[in-house]
Amino acid sequence: KGCRKRKSVRGCVVGPDLATLSMVLVKKGAEEIPGLTDDQRPRRLGPKRASNIRKLFALEKKDDVRNFVVRRELEGKKKKKAPKIQRLVTPAMLQR
Question: What is the distance between the alpha carbons of residues 57 and 76, in angstroms, rounded to a whole number?
């Protein structure tokens, strides 16, 4: 009862008792899979690390990363939320 059920797939035979399967699409076929490949959904969250934000927006070292953070709007509120930027070089950090 308290033991975790191992979900394994051998070949193409899957047990009927499994609710979800963890899979990765390796190659896309000629037709779309309904609910999986037929619609494009944007990524929910943007990058948090300063170097990855620079890479995403093709910024230079002198550009301010804080202006390019991906902000998300909270549901039911007019407020926006942004992650704390990691590895951000600030004057206070250089002083330490």
Answer: 29
Tokens 């951000």 sit at which residue? 88
- Give the predicted TM-score (pTM) of the model: 0.61
For residue 96, the surrounding DSSP H or E stretch is none
What tens digit of pLDDT does each residue of 52-95 get?
999 999 999 999 999 999 998 888 888 999 999 999 999 999 99
Contact criterion met (CB below 8 Å) for 44 and 38: no
Question: Contact at 8 Å (CB) between 70 and 45?
Answer: yes
Beta-ladder partners of 10: 13
Side chain identity, residue 28: K
- Of the pLDDT bands very low, low, confident and very high (cuts 50, 70, 90), residue 39 is confident
Provide the 3-class DSSP secondary structure of residue 57. Answer: helix
